């Protein structure tokens, strides 16, 4: 270390000792500011690990998957490929729907990307075939943007009534909440007025389908009626009479002749019926409605969840009055965040307790142990404040980084405090002891270079993790960032706060400090062991090399996984049937799978503990189903056992 940096450290430590009241007060302010930031921090399940992405959906009613691919998806892909910053364009074409995903480079501004895509969409929309709706961009959401999944079932209301209430009452209310980006509704029957034409009546009255379509459009549409000017005012005319019921639509006149008027009801059956369904949903074996609620990009998952649940609580009496059962927690990612926070909190408390116990046993003094332990919450809270400033959410990765940093954040303080207590003990045995402030300064400066070197060595190890490219970097870089910030905060506290606390708490005149018993015993034992090892250096080096080789040889036999198993207790089963499978058959298969899942003893035991085990099945298309099993009270080991039993049951 150069003399300039050494003198700078000495100056910082000397300032902290001289103005220890200011330093301690500042540390207290940072501590309480960190607590305030922790209370108002933004929480999420995972960091934003997917690159900037824009999703475009285009409806093409009546088109086959091949036609959607050729006439809709492919022109969209060709038009979007030339945009700047694009990494990949991929599409999915199913009956009547095209979904195009455009992935941009990591550094791309997502809002600028959406603007560029929107400009190209306006050009492509003019080239699409007749009958294809204009392409639309889905709401901007984060990678883990699904904030809540709820369901509706009823024994009194029909599926059409359920869907109508959801589309026109519940969905607008949810979309109006702050932080909600989109609401997707699956299942139910969408109401429509259908005109089922009788061909023989068309021939009898010499009427074509175009005449029927024109009459229906005119009867169900709204047209302006103009206005009338008077000397004093302008009177706006409003036309009424839009046909909203089958009876009123059936009275619509198509043509008039000498034999009388020909109405829609005379040449067709006009009825209220659902439009052809493209998906279905069931909840615990009962057909109903499943609603997926998505949060806005960068929103606070916990805050949005609370807003949604408050709105559902207000809406529940209205549903109960109509005999509708609301399943408000089919999938709740906030449970995962709460579990992660609880696990991290327990890890922090347990780690802090163990650190306090070890420090007290080795230093054998409450004041020195308190000085060391004060750096743990201070460093963690400062790191949380810095993460919030950088726009990083508190999620499973950042909390994991803070948890593994507990042992490191206290290390810098322990080294400094132990050396200070040793120097104070030696100083009090001198004939002319120096001042406490001088001893603390010299002791802190003496070990500070080693502490700085060790801290930066640890930080350098984590820098490659922060620089990881692609999906791995976006997922694991926040963990390394949280760890590095916590270690840097602990180093800053060791240079400033620890010397100030030592000068304040350890400056007791005339006090004689003895060597801690456990520290003295371990030091003597280590000296004996070290003396023996020094007599056989080749044996030590050979053992180290052998251990390293054994470690490398064991690598191929270790199981590898991209991310570890989380203990959130949520199991998702995705099932794909043969192409062309009908919705009725998909729902039948879903009920069979649900019954098999209910027979598993682990799921039955969970149902007894939490009241019920939520099973909801979404059929997104005629041959694709997804089942979600809510097992929030199951630990990681039990989840793996259930996963194996589910696979075995489904294979049967």
From TrEMBL:
<feature type="transmembrane region" description="Helical">
    <location>
        <begin position="450"/>
        <end position="471"/>
    </location>
</feature>
<protein>
    <submittedName>
        <fullName>Efflux RND transporter permease subunit</fullName>
    </submittedName>
</protein>
<keyword id="KW-0472">Membrane</keyword>
<feature type="transmembrane region" description="Helical">
    <location>
        <begin position="539"/>
        <end position="558"/>
    </location>
</feature>
<dbReference type="InterPro" id="IPR027463">
    <property type="entry name" value="AcrB_DN_DC_subdom"/>
</dbReference>
<dbReference type="Pfam" id="PF00873">
    <property type="entry name" value="ACR_tran"/>
</dbReference>
<feature type="transmembrane region" description="Helical">
    <location>
        <begin position="21"/>
        <end position="38"/>
    </location>
</feature>
<feature type="transmembrane region" description="Helical">
    <location>
        <begin position="369"/>
        <end position="387"/>
    </location>
</feature>
<feature type="transmembrane region" description="Helical">
    <location>
        <begin position="483"/>
        <end position="507"/>
    </location>
</feature>
<feature type="transmembrane region" description="Helical">
    <location>
        <begin position="347"/>
        <end position="364"/>
    </location>
</feature>
<keyword id="KW-1133">Transmembrane helix</keyword>
<keyword id="KW-0812">Transmembrane</keyword>
<dbReference type="InterPro" id="IPR001036">
    <property type="entry name" value="Acrflvin-R"/>
</dbReference>
């Amino acid at each position: 270390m150069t003399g300039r940096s050494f003198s700078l450290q000495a100056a910082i430590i000397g300032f902290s000792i001289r103005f220890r009241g200011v330093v301690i007060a500042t540390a207290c302010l940072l501590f309480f500011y960190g607590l305030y930031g922790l209370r108002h921090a933004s929480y999420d399940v995972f960091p934003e690990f997917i690159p900037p992405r824009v999703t475009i959906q285009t409806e093409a009613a009546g088109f086959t998957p091949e036609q959607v691919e050729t006439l809709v998806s492919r022109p969209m892909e060709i038009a979007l490929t030339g945009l700047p910053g694009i990494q990949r364009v991929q599409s999915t074409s199913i009956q009547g729907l095209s979904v195009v995903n455009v992935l941009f480079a990591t550094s791309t501004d997502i809002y600028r990307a959406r603007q560029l895509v929107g400009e190209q969409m306006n050009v492509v929309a003019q080239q699409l075939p007749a009958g294809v709706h204009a392409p639309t961009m889905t709401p901007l959401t984060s990678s883990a943007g699904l904030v809540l999944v709820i369901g509706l079932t009823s024994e009194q209301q029909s599926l059409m009534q359920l869907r109508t209430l959801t589309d026109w009452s519940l969905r607008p209310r949810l979309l109006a909440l702050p932080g909600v980006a989109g609401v997707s509704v699956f299942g139910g029957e969408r109401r429509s007025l259908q005109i089922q034409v009788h061909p023989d009546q068309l021939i009898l009255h010499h009427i074509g389908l175009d005449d029927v379509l024109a009459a229906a459009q005119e009867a169900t549409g709204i047209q302006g009626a103009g206005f009338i000017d008077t000397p004093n005012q302008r009177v706006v005319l409003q036309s009424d009479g839009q046909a909203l019921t089958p009876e009123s639509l059936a009275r619509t006149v198509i043509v008039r002749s000498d034999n009388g008027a020909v109405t829609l009801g005379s040449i067709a059956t006009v009825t209220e019926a659902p439009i052809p369904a493209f998906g279905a949903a069931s909840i615990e074996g009962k057909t109903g409605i499943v609603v997926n609620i998505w949060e806005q990009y960068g929103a606070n998952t916990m805050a949005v969840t609370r807003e949604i649940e408050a709105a559902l609580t207000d809406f529940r009496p209205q549903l109960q009055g109509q005999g509708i059962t609301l399943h408000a927690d089919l999938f709740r990612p906030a449970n995962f965040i709460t579990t992660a926070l609880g696990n991290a909190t327990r890890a922090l408390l347990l780690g802090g307790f163990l650190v306090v116990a070890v420090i007290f046993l080795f230093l054998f003094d409450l004041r020195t142990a308190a000085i060391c332990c004060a750096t743990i919450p201070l460093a963690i809270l400062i790191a949380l404040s810095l993460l919030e400033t950088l726009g990083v959410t508190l999620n499973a990765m950042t909390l994991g980084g803070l948890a593994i940093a507990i042992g490191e954040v206290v290390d810098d303080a322990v080294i400094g405090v132990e050396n200070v207590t040793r120097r104070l003990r030696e100083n009090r045995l001198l004939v002319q002891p120096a001042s406490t402030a001088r001893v603390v300064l010299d002791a802190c400066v003496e070990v500070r270079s080693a502490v700085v070197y060790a801290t930066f060595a640890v930080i350098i190890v984590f820098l490659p993790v922060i620089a990881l490219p692609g999906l791995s970097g976006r997922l694991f870089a926040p963990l390394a960032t949280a760890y590095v910030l916590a270690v840097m905060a602990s180093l800053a506290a060791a240079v400033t706060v620890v010397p100030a606390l030592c000068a304040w708490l350890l400056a007791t005149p005339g006090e004689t400090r003895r060597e801690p018993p456990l520290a003295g015993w371990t030091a003597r034992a280590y000296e004996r062991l070290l003396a023996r090892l020094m007599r056989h250096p080749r044996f030590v080096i050979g053992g180290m090399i052998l251990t390293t080789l054994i470690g490398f040889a064991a690598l191929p036999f270790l199981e590898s996984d991209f991310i570890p198993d989380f203990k959130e207790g949520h199991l998702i089963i995705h099932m794909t049937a043969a192409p062309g499978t009908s919705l009725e058959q998909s729902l039948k298969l879903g009920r069979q799978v649900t019954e098999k899942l209910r027979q598993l003893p682990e799921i039955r035991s969970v149902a007894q503990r939490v009241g019920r085990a939520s099973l909801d099945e979404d059929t997104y298309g005629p041959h694709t189903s997804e089942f979600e099993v809510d097992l929030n009270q199951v630990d990681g080991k039990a989840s793996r056992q259930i996963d194996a039993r589910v696979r075995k049951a489904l294979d049967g």
